[in-house]
Design a protein that fits this description.
With 161 residues, this protein is α/β, with parallel strands linked by helices. It contains 4 helices and 11 strands, in the order E-E-E-H-E-H-E-E-H-E-H-E-E-E-E. The two termini are 14 Å apart. The mean pLDDT is 97. It comes from Aequorivita xiaoshiensis.
Length: 161
Amino acid sequence: MITMIAAAAENNELGAQNGMIWHLPDDFKRFKKLTSGHHVIMGRKTFESLDKPLPNRTNVVITRDKDYEKLGAVSVQSLEAALEIAQNDVQPFIIGGGEIYKMGLPFADKIELTRVHGTFANADTFFPEFSTDEWKLESETRHEIDEKHKYAFTYQTWVRR
């Protein structure tokens, strides 16, 4: 089962200038819990935006650069090659960025989406549109604003129909 996992705002905003627009600690904890022990597939810009490779996960980086080598990551030149590397993982995760999500949507069986309740005019990266004709909302849990979270958000699990 191939799962895309993302946090996107009301207009599908993901980030700006290769970074996050919001800080949601509980979402980070959920991301870590869901992806630990699995392959995480991402684009080069997403990988380079991290402080270090994500621990307890196989970091697979998609890049056009055939000579790209970074400690703690496996580099490939296509999504298909990334999925081949992850073929023995029961649930590899596609973790971004925008172009990788767009490429990954046709392959995905599930979307773990944190819908951030807000809009962000400075965003330059977006989650792809997906149709409720093709996807069914399986569950959702709302998280309100609190002392650690400036924005309310909802965890949504979507499964392909």
